[in-house]
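Predict the 3D structure for this chain.
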Amino acid sequence: MTLQQEIFEQIKKHQRIIIHRHQRPDPDAIGSQIGLAEIIRASFPMKTVLAVGKQIGGLSWIGEMDTADDDDYDDALVIVTDTANPPRVDDNRYTNGQELIKIDHHPDDDPYGDLAWVVPSASSSSEMIFDLYHQFKHELTLNAKAAKALYAGIIGDTGRFLYSATTPHTMRVAASLMATGFDVTAVNQKLDSIPLSVAHLSAYVYQNLTITEDGAATVCLTSEVLDQFDLKDAGTAGVVPLPGKIESVVCWAIFVVQRDGTYRVRLRSKGPTINELAKKHDGGGHALASGAKAKDLDEVQTIQNELAAIATAYKKSKKE
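Done. Predicted structure below.
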């Protein structure tokens, strides 16, 4: 029996299924979670399926979160999507069920769960959920609501098919999802639009980027900057891809101050591997897209220096 078959058997076996994802979710976290929930609901109407976690206003158009009581976890199957590390799971009751399944496309550096289906080569966890549906489509139903959520997740994690994890299979999955009839244009426009405050912050980022000779770009968003644009950490996600649009930039970091004075570090790359750098600073992720933490401005400077060294080594390797 394959791992996917084991997962499907667990879904069929349990009457109550609770689906979690990571904190500070992006479209793929919400999309894979809601997409899976809607597939199971449409396929098995008599089952209770709950998607739990903090409700994120900016992503509620993908799907609304449910409320789960502690008793709901008794004899429940818990599935966590798009979450590499246990500390990142939103709602720590995820261990209270009868069985725990991990479905994820990040490197499996921190294994957990009774079953763990991890495919780092997949473009997104949403793509994996579609693959699970497709493998058992004779017993599963993919409705437009599920397809919309999965499509949003794929678009979000591939940067609208710009990133290297986009494969011919990814495009075929997207086409299959589009064929269900949801408003594709509306989803694309929703993911492409930003509030005016984020537009103003985007101008600040471009004006204040520090770019080394070898293409390492960094910018620090302090409390004063966030207050200036009336934004909190969650509102800064829209500026993360911006440095990568600059031709000379090969890797970049955006530092965002947190309430406790520490800094969230968003690391991205167009070539050099940056997840090992993230691991050195309480983080991790993909080779070209990772996250980390800096406890203070001294550690911010350390990460800036290390990123610059990575860019220099990468440029040198390209010349050899």
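The domain at 3-192 is CATH 3.90.1640.10 (inorganic pyrophosphatase (n-terminal core)).
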